[in-house]
Amino acid sequence: MDAVAAQKDAVALPEPCSRVPVEHADFIRQVLDRIGDKWTLMVVASLHGGLMRYKDLQSSIPGISQRMLSRTLAQLHQDGLVTRTAYAEVPPRVEYALTPLGASLNDVVASLIDWAADHHEEIRRHRAGGGAADAS
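^ thats the sequence. predicted structure below, dont judge the formating
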């Protein structure tokens, strides 16, 4: 390795990016995109209490369409965050629950939702142009 390459490697990235290995950065961004999605946050928060049937889950999340709920649940299942149990009954019954991996997100998700609920009026004022001037 020449001196220029060694110097480039020695430059530390600022936190929190320094904890992300370069070879995993794309995948980590994909994971953050998935878990940071508004519907993912609401599904994880709704499932924190345990098993839920599809219709109960849909009615617990205001504004979510059937398509978006199905898509979000499929993605969360694919990533190992949600279990899906289908019962051979008439009519069919499907239940969803958080896996231990999904449950480990619950505190973070609840904090984000609480923060948004606590600050939505202030943000609404800023968007409308009535918030405090920036300190720049």
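The mean pLDDT is 85.
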